[in-house]
Amino acid sequence: MRQLKIAPLNFGLGRKRSSLPFGCEVQRSRRKTLAIYIIQGKVVVRCPMRASSGQITTFLNDNREWIEERLAEESLKQKQQLRIERGAKIFYRARELRIVFKEGRKERVMVLGDKFIVQGHKLTPAKARVQVENFLIAKAQDYIIPRARGLARYLGVDHKLKEIKLRKTKSKWGHCTSTGIIQYNYLIMLAPYSIIDYMITHEVCHMLHMDHSQRFWNLVDSLCPNSEHYMLWLKEHEHRFWI
Ligand SMILES: [Zn+2]
Prior knowledge:
The chain is an alpha/beta fold. The chain has helices spanning about 55-60, 65-80, 125-155, 195-205, 215-225, 225-235, and strands at about 5-10, 25-30, 35-40, 40-50, 90, 95-105, 110, 115-120, 165, 175, 180-185. Zinc ion binds near residues 202, 206 and 212.
């Protein structure tokens, strides 16, 4: 990968004053056009080596509305991030529940009405988080594995499916290898069953088509109609599931 020259640039402090309310990072490279990215809540401008700061300021001003919308979106996402803490909100099966810590010798997690109850002895957020993850792993074992195996049998590819792993990965919900290993992120158990079923279907269909070709999507759609609806839902809400 080509090295980028990175020069932090704070608009408003430079020679040409700007009314832009945010700092931004300028990355120069041998590209021909300017482009704006929002990366982890920060504005990054990628531009040609010789772009002047005036050009960059104008470009930022022209796109100000878009930038502000994206920044607001990012900050909302940050606020909605899942924290297993007393009184915090959890987005469980498309409903917003309140997390309650309950003292008790027996460790368990229960959903009662609008409460997501974590019961344990002298609970701390760290302990509660482990309990919630174990709860989701158990749910994934009971739900995902038999359904994925059943679908593989139905499609006649059970001999190809060697192993199903449940693992918390950083950015993926499912993954499939050509050696017949399917991996699911157990945090998907926070989502509604229709979304989980879509993920199960998607990965098992890769046992027949290892790509995202039309043939692959036709197969997915024949088993799980409206898959694009589920993908969109996931895209919109998945930031609320990562812990
Ligand atoms: Zn895929």
